[in-house]
Specification:
Elements (H helix, E strand, L loop, with lengths): L7 H21 L7 E2 L5 E2 L1 H17 L5 E3 L6 H4 L4 E9 L1 H6 L5 E8 L2 E9 L4 E6 L9 E6 L2 E4 L9 E6 L8 H8 L5 E6 L3 H7 L5 E4 L3 E2 H13 L3 E3 L15 E2 L2 E4 L4 H14 L1
Helix pairs in contact: 1-2, 6-7
């Protein structure tokens, strides 16, 4: 059993993310969520702003030498291009789900070292579920992935696929699985079940072994994927682009991601072959 519950760094990160969740849920109960539109026409709420402040202050206290890139405090590439270590934060991943009040939103905190996510923590405020993954030992934290719920902690890993194959799809951003990919998957598995969810919950469900695949073909940003990528990789899975390469972070001016696949090592090659065939056909 991977036991990090008494490690001071884990405890500090857990406290930071719990504190952010408390303020998010406090605002979630209010009639007015304080919704405004950002310059890119995406929504932001009072909960995004309040949670971001708590996380920024907590991470600065934990590791004052490590700079922070957050959805709510974007830093120019000229300033961050020299950062070898950085926190990548989404204080409220799934703002649209928060506004819809469907409960499917999360808090994401990742540590990126030389472009690679080495630590990730994702917390679901409405359910109290937390996920934590380490791909490369940092401050004495062992490699591996866990889920916690209250005082209960369990080690997690991606599963071997089975029938029905469970594909996570986006609650608000669609589309569902392409029909030709679904047909390809059905050649290996009798049933393919699609399960819509919001935010980083999709990747975490794959990391804990209750789903098999997520194909994302819409836009995301680096703070949407960094934490879940660390957790997925620590659990034995993959988050890769259509060529099979893992995402790297803080490597360019744009913070937008391309298409990506989340899956275990058995499913990912099937989807990558489908992508390759689709490109050849086009």
């Amino acid at each position: 059993m991977l036991d990090v519950s008494r490690h001071p760094t884990f405890k500090a990160l857990q406290q930071i993310i719990h504190n952010a969740a408390d303020v998010i849920m406090e605002i979630y109960q209010k009639a007015d969520l304080g919704v405004v539109q950002k310059s890119d026409d995406s929504p932001v709420t009072a909960a995004d702003i309040a949670a971001n402040q708590i996380i920024m202050e907590g991470l600065t206290e934990l590791a004052p030498e490590i700079p922070i890139l957050s959805e709510e405090v974007v830093v120019s590439f000229d300033e961050r291009r020299e950062w070898q270590e950085l926190w990548v934060v989404d204080p409220l991943d799934g703002t649209k789900e928060f506004i819809k009040r469907n409960g499917e939103f999360s808090i994401n905190i990742a540590l990126v070292v030389e472009g690679k996510p080495v630590l990730g923590m994702v917390y679901l405020p409405t359910t109290g579920e937390g996920y934590f993954g380490v791909t490369k030992s940092w401050r004495g934290l062992p490699e591996g992935a866990i889920k916690w719920h209250g005082q209960d902690i369990e080690e997690i890993s991606v599963r071997e696929p089975r029938d029905p194959l469970v594909a996570m799809t986006s609650r608000s951003h669609g589309p569902s699985l392409p029909e030709d990919l679904k047909a390809t998957l059905k050649s290996a598995y009798d049933q393919v079940r699609e399960l819509p969810k919001g935010s980083s919950i999709k990747g975490c469900r794959i990391a804990e072994g209750i789903a098999d695949l997520h194909l994302r073909r819409g836009p995301t940003s680096e703070w949407d994927t960094a934490a879940q990528q660390a957790i997925i990789e620590a659990a034995g899975g993959l988050l890769v682009d259509p060529t099979g390469e893992p995402f790297r972070y803080n490597q360019r001016d744009s913070l937008l991601n391309g298409h990506f696949i989340v899956a275990g090592p058995e499913i990912a090659p099937i989807v990558l072959d489908w992508y390759k065939q689709s490109d050849e056909d086009n």
